Please model this.
Amino acid sequence: IIKETAGVFSHDGPEIQTYLQRYTVSMDHLVEEALRLNVKWSLQELNKAVNGDGRTAAEPFCLVKVMLTSIENLPGRVDYVPKLDQLTDYVTSCATELMLTLAGINRLPDILAKKRTFHNTISDVITNDNDINKLQDNVIRGVKGSVEEVNKFIQKTWVVPGFKEVWELNKDKFVLRYQTSLKDKPVAIMGEDVGRYNEISNNAQQQETKVPISFVMLDCSPLKNNILRHCTEWQTRLCDLLLDDATTRLDSLQEYMEVGKETLSVAVSDLDELGDQLGFLKRTQDEKSEKEQLIKPVQDQFVMLDSYSVTVSDQVTERLERLRPAWDDFISFLATSEEKLVKLKDKFKAGLLQSAEDFKRHVSNLCDDFQQKGPFSSKVSSADALEIILQTKKQLEDLKTRESKLKKGLNLFNIKQPVNNAIAILEKELEQLEVIWSLSKEWEDSWATWKEGKFGDLDTEKMLFDAQGIYKRLNRIGREVKEKGWDICDILKNRIDQFKRTMPLIQDLKNDALRPRHWDQLQNEIQKPFNPESDEFTLEKIIELVFFFND
Model:
């Protein structure tokens, strides 16, 4: 319209053009004011919607749902749909969007003159308007304040002890820790732990689902449903754990009774078995009061689980109902077993006392037989003597084993067995004889090696060293058996002593200074020929030539 009007007067004089320009500027100011008022009134409406009108509170026009979100292996957290920062951006951006709609509106004089005559656009003027800026600030403060109130309400109402634990705690880790604490946990505490989630569920149910906060309508039903679902899962996990625990305790008691009956029902055939059963019976009787005290907690645990509608199999229910009668029957069985074992004990006692007398007789016979036939004389060979000692030691070990069993049996009847010194004495003599005859065998083996060696190859220093070693050990054991009159010890000592006395002569004959004429002189002296360089000229040959009996 302005353009058409300007076109009508386009050919008129300057005065008309001046009036036309003033008219255009006036119309431009009217358009500017109209747009400014439009923006202002729009922002006033938005401000009223966000902050209210001062007399009444704002009516909710934005629905925000509150719920739990979770990432795998991480605790859940409270979240909003839409998110609060998105809501803030959406509402506060309304004023900005209004300004953007004005950006394309040009000044009327600029349109007519086809060039810019004003420094500020309509958009710039309205954007910098104080009233509009105050309204924008009020809207932003109102939105941020409402968002803070929303967060405060959620934190105060829902993210509190009693609620937040149901989604923050790791259920698997908690159940594992809880399982380790069940052994000493009273049933009443178990019931409180399970019932706690009923209490949390009830508290959640009592909370308002739809809550208006300024221009926001909070819908907490998703969060409430999440909490109820977590409570159900917690309660199910705990009840399953407590059912497994109660069933395990029930099975343990039944197994205890079954093992007890099975053990005490085995027929007793000897004293060892009698002792084992008597010991088992005593242990069982000592702990029966402690075991009986476990029955009621198991029964109470199943009662508690039933109060939470936990399904228990018919088989477990049947075993639970038989638990008390089975225990009473077990106690009766223990009394019967005790009577049976007492009778067996009397029966075995007579046989045990007879076995003790037989044992004494066997020990006496072995000692007497050894004193008569033992290898105390040098007339016995070393091999035979060591074999006699070995066989006697085996018989002695058998007697010691019998003695140990006999002592164990006598202890059942509180009968003390006197210490049998004969066994200890015989054992000591066998050890001493074994040392002596082992030295005799060592000497015989050494002499057998030396006597067949070529005279020129004999190592007289080593021979003397070995002989002295045997002699020292023989001397040491000889002092222990000095009063026993064993001639093997004296005979062996004399043999070694004689050998030691002849060693100087042997060493003289091995003297490098000895010449053939000296050997000839020796042959003439003893009236027997020999060849000192011959392989047959051995230590044994020298003895045959009776060198040892000539000065």
About this structure: The mean pLDDT is 84. The two ends are 172 Å apart (CA to CA). The longest strand covers residues 62-69.
